[in-house]
Design brief:
Elements: E1 6-9, H1 17-20, E2 27-31, E3 39-40, H2 43-50, E4 54-61, E5 71-78, H3 85-109, E6 129-130, H4 149-158, E7 165-173, E8 182-194, H5 204-208, E9 213-214, E10 219-222, E11 228-235, E12 242-243, H6 244-249, E13 254-258
Parallel strand pairs: 1-2, 3-6
Antiparallel strand pairs: 2-4, 4-5, 7-8, 7-13, 8-11, 9-10, 10-11, 11-12
Helix pairs in contact: 2-4
Domain Formyl transferase C-terminal: 133-251
Protein name: Methionyl-tRNA formyltransferase
InterPro entries: Formyl_trans_C (IPR005793), Formyl_trans_C_sf (IPR037022), Formyl_transf_N (IPR002376), Formyl_transf_N_sf (IPR036477), Formyl_transferase-like_C_sf (IPR011034), Met-tRNA-FMT_C (IPR044135)
Length: 264
């Protein structure tokens, strides 16, 4: 087989050496992270979940070890804190395509080869791993003391699209006893981190009871760290995604409380 160069994009499997030996100039991979950070199957999801301030895309040679080859190009993308996984992934691949086109002349000329004109990843710092995301991780636990409102917000952003995030609430009428509350699992689509002391009902009693504060444009959920996660878009079971405003309109006369997940 007469092949000059092979290119992959976020290829999640290992390529055997007999495959890597085929192209005369090697195999390049577009990876949506600033290598060596977030090597692995879910770089964008894990970067958002981690709440990093800057991510990016790398063009690197492929070696037997996952995402560990020398780097030809890196493009940084500062984060504002409201990006979601699907849109950011698409944007990073656009940047990666540009970086690849920019690098190709050096590859053809030999100015950038596997062992010359590239940068070893260790020059950029320590490596980190982006493990594949599982459905079992999608539940939000507002009672976990290690998860701040900010971390929960970042998880919603990182898991947007697939697998998404969900949360379980106990909903009852004001005239009903707490024991009669119905469990409702909602897919959480869009959130923001709320400030302290905003709005009527944001008090110690509501927080201690785990009561969700219903606002006109959001549901303010008390978190174990003392912060508030504001849900602005959600999806009830069997329905399309809707604004929290529309969902809240149907909760008049209801009390909503957080329900601790049993997911470990």
């Amino acid at each position: 087989m007469d092949v000059d160069l092979m290119v992959t994009a976020a290829y999640g499997n290992f390529l055997p050496q007999r495959f890597l030996d085929i192209p005369r100039l090697g195999t390049l991979n577009i990876h949506p992270s600033l290598l060596p950070q977030f090597r692995g199957a879910a770089p964008v999801q894990r970067a958002l979940e981690a709440g990093v301030d800057v991510t990016g895309v790398s063009v690197a040679y492929t070696v037997l070890k996952m995402d560990a080859g020398p780097v030809l190009r890196r493009i940084e993308r500062p984060l504002l804190g409201d990006e979601k996984h699907p849109e950011l992934l698409e944007e990073l691949f656009g940047l990666g395509a540009r970086a690849l086109v920019d690098a190709l002349p050096d590859v053809w000329s030999g100015a950038a080869a596997f062992d010359a004109g590239t940068t070893p990843q260790e020059s950029y710092g320590e490596a980190s791993h982006a493990a594949k995301v599982s459905v079992e991780e999608s539940e939000l636990d507002f009672c976990d003391g290690e998860l701040s409102a900010r971390r929960l917000h970042d998880k919603v952003r990182g898991f947007a699209g697939w697998p998404g995030t969900k949360a379980t609430f106990a909903v009852r009428k004001e005239t009903e006893a707490a024991a009669d509350a119905k469990e409702v699992s909602l897919k959480i689509v869009t959130t923001r981190v709320g400030g302290e002391g905003e709005g009527e009902g944001d008090d110690a009693a509501a927080r201690a009871a785990g009561t969700v504060v219903i606002r006109k444009d959001c549901m303010r959920v008390p978190c174990a760290d003392g912060g508030w996660l504001e849900i602005t878009e959600l999806q009830p079971p069997g329905k399309k995604a809707m604004s929290a405003r529309d969902y809240v309109n149907g909760l008049k006369g209801s009390v909503v409380a957080v329900k601790k997940t049993t997911t470990s």
